[in-house]
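User: I'm curious whether this sequence folds into something compact or stays loose and floppy. Could you predict its structure so I can see for myself?
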Amino acid sequence: MLNAEAVLPADWKPGTRLPTIFWVYPNDYRSAAAASQNRRSPNRFPSQSTLNPEVLVTQGYAVVYPDIAVVGTNDKYVEEIGMSAKAAIDECARRGFCDPERVGVGGHSYGAFSTANLLAHTDLFKAGTASDGAYNRALTPFTFQAEERTLWEAPDTYLAMSPFLHADHIDRPLLLLHNLDDTNVGTNPIQSQRMFEALNGLGKTVTLVEYPYEDHGPVARETVLDYWARLIDWFDRYVKKSPGGAAAPAGGSAR
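Assistant: Here's the prediction. I'll summarize afterward.
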């Protein structure tokens, strides 16, 4: 059994279906039993992080933190994140607050990487936003996240997990954001630059926003305000105003 936390607008009325944003960051578990443990305490203090997606709740969205589980090795990463995401969407729809035709996905760092993979390998989401991510695992050959094998020990897994190599399958709008002084191992700004160039060259709907003088996550007031203004506009355009799950128009890419 997997868990998820949903944050709803204060004036939400039961039965009202809302545009919903899934904020993802997969968890790695060594066993199915460990994956069934509840990892988000209902008694925790609200996050005051500049990357707290709950600002979207003030704009009429439901925000869901799904427990995207990867069990054992990463060999079935793509399959497992898709199954977890679908199960979470189905349950949120069953509970009456999620409009399954208006669901977006977003994430930061490993969550950004997983956002791109969910767009490449599923049709569950209408649009995505990804900040400070890594998209080509050939550029992180000496392990990453919980992966303990090198590229040369598990080449098929590294390549299967690289959304850059599956960019031709991303048919939903993707907003890429990256801080130009990102010193986090594996998330050099070239990751987003090359991902943008791939999607733009393929005629996809994509935008890349780069922030100077920022490390792995926005800090400056001006950056944070611009960051959220862009995310809100993106989700409003491609998720909230997407009745019937209509696909976003092609083209319109910018950098």
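Summary: The beta strands are 4-7, 18-23, 27-29, 62-66, 69-71, 98-108, 128-131, 174-179, 206-211. DSSP finds six helices and nine strands in the chain.
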